[in-house]
Amino acid sequence: MAQKRSSKRSKKSARPERAYLRHAGWILAGGCWLFLIISLAGFNQADWPSPSVSTHNDPVANPTGIVGATVAYWTLASLGMTAWVLLAGALVALVALARGKELSHPIVRIFGVVLIGLAIGILDVTWFGGLSGTPTTPGGLIPEFFANHLLERFNGVGVTLWMLTALAIGTIVAADELLLKIPSIAQLSERGAHLVQFVPPRQIGM
Questions:
Q1: Taking 80 as the threshold, does the pLDDT of residue 7 lie above it?
Q2: pTM for the whole thing?
């Protein structure tokens, strides 16, 4: 009996510790997300280590300092538009975790978000030449690499078709549960619209 009681107490004490660790991990991840957003939004091509200018800002113009300027440059130079898609996916995950939901198959979800980001980044390079990179790499090194190789083989229309296919696959892989809920959400909205139409104005006011 004493052993059973001690085991129950140990389990109860372990639960709060796990909850604290989860909260601490969420706060840390949220802080990192905010740091990345601010650093990327505050990117300045005259900050070090950008090679676009001969004389760099001193002090740096990035609101997150020299570390943020370095992170922003290499992130945008490598990923371009893909970086913003990955941050959007991270925000969705943070919100879901904050609401107490568990992310099923996290590795598969991450793969889907990465596929979405690459597809959008390649489309950005294909049609606009890159809008979110650095002056030397407007579309990001990775999206530009794939876009250039694909354009040599499929041209703009073919690349667009393949990237739209990849975008659809990535969306299904990353957010299949959300997509399955769309029909039920649409039905609920239709029922709500019908109820509003048939309810007399006086009852609505009450």
A1: no
A2: 0.79
